[in-house]
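G., the chain you wanted modeled:
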Amino acid sequence: MKSDHGRQGPGPIPQWLINQSPKRYFRDHIQDVPLDGSTTVCQEARCPNRGECLAHGIVTFMIMGNVCTRNCPFCAVEFGRPPVAPDPQEPEKLIRSIQHLGLRYVVITSPNRDELPDGGAGHYALCIRRIREEFPSIGIEILIPDFLGKPDCFDRLIAEPPNVLAHDLQTVPRLYRQVRPGHKYERSLDLFRYFHEHAPDLPLKAGIMVGFGETVDEVAQLLNDFRQTGGTLFTIGQYLKPGPGHLDVVEYVPLERYREFTAIGRELGIQVQASPLTRSSYMAERLADRLATNASARD
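Predicted structure as tokens:
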């Protein structure tokens, strides 16, 4: 695949990215997260930002196991039929972990569970409800799959609303067939439209990875598409190949382009967090607070 800058392949890893690499970050900042039966994306994905987020009382939990019913070639999550139903004790495990870690903001995500009638939406709602009962002041963000576009699944979450609802778009529409087989760009936009129509006060967040060969114009159009659905929060980070058999990196996106993406978002009224190591849930509370601060200033 060829990038819009006319060269084949990503070339050597740039020094500025090596300096920010997970290996170096872990050497300087690694923290073991003590849990009580809960699974975190922070550990499973060996996120380079996990020490920073944990220091600010933020952790991303993965519920409903670590086997996904869709096989995206950029993703390290195991593909297959999940072997077990969602654990009914999972909300209590989350509560114990939150208490033990002293968290003030949690992100909850999951693999796709297309084999479940509701895609796991009811389990999300249960987790939100129990956390709210135990910790009324905690911030809760959920990073959800598309639930195959089923409105009744969305309604379950509207009945137990989080502070922020996130759903990743991952890449520009042109690259969906290659990067996100099993997903549909318009179906994801419809998800945001539904939540904006039926829960207009719920902040909506999306994210993409760059480095697949997308152009600046394509990212700008995607940001505009997202804004038209009512979305206001967005993350952009560099795709890094997780291992053999996954999609190759086409380009290591230069730092100035992240600043360009941020400026495009600002013009559209979107709060954008963009940098090479930004991930969907990176310092999630900070991005949400920035939105709230700007809203207060407008008032």
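The domain at 15-298 is CATH 3.20.20.70 (TIM Barrel).

Shout if anything looks off.
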